[in-house]
């Protein structure tokens, strides 16, 4: 119900946590000065090139990781002179770009494909970062927060005993040592609201699971539809700027559409339920019993 890029960790010793995505201007600045952060305090690359061990020392990327990137096609091949492979500034820049993209959650396969498009001139990395920034923007202000035990108990005040265990079971809350990571403070508030309306918290959690399951399927189908019509009905062109602007423009209308359509569907379902002649017999069904 309450679960929080599918990050493929194929390379060894790589960060799995995605940092905050920089703004477009900052991302472009990173590209203009690519390698500056990784090579701070180290000597400039030799004009004659570097061996793989020298490249590893210069970029602080392990040799085995460099070989892994090459094997997967994300890093271009070195220049072979005699029996020795030499790497140049282009390899330093590519390693910086790969690290930046890995930090954003891309798998090495996705990075390889992206770099291939960039090398062909089909895509500019700066434009892609701008699009990625827009896609990564949250669609609500409901962000995960860390709470102490006292803060969480206060947030759950008035709810039945065992609610904390229930929120952990359904993925709304994760225990982190002596503190708690609340994936969605907004859903905690929803839980309080529906309980106040007379809905059992466990039943509410099950209902949330149903809603989330269908919401995931809905968003997946909509994205397939929109991506398939990029520049041909969704956006004025297939450029990152055009798609970025369209996504930003449809965010609020899309959320409104989901709310309106859900309300209409619920009204129709309730009307049909009444028309079916449903009778709730309290004598036959005890409170809290479940229909099999």
Task: Describe the protein.
By secondary structure, the chain is mostly helical. Among the domains are: 24-135, Orthogonal Bundle (Multidrug-efflux Transporter Regulator, Chain: A, Domain 2); 139-210. The protein is built from eleven helices and five strands, in the order αααββαααβααββααα. A hairpin with a 2-residue loop joins strand 4 (173-176) and strand 5 (179-182). Helix 1 (24-32) packs antiparallel against helix 6 (125-135) and helix 6 (125-135) runs parallel beside helix 11. The protein is elongated. The two termini are 22 Å apart. Mean pLDDT is 79; it is low at 1-42 and 286-292.
- Lateral strand order in the biggest sheet: 3-5-4
Radius of gyration: 26 Å
CATH topology of the domain at 24-135: Multidrug-efflux Transporter Regulator, Chain: A, Domain 2
The assigned CATH architecture of the domain at 24-135 is: Orthogonal Bundle
Helix content: 40-55%
Mean pLDDT value = 79
Assess the beta-strand content as a share of residues. 5-15%
Kindly report how far apart the N and C termini lie. 22 Å
Oligomer description: single chain
Reading off the top of the CATH hierarchy, the class of the domain at 24-135 is best stated as Mainly Alpha
Coarse structural class: mainly alpha
Q: What form results from the Cα inertia axes?
A: elongated
Main sheet record: 3 strands, antiparallel
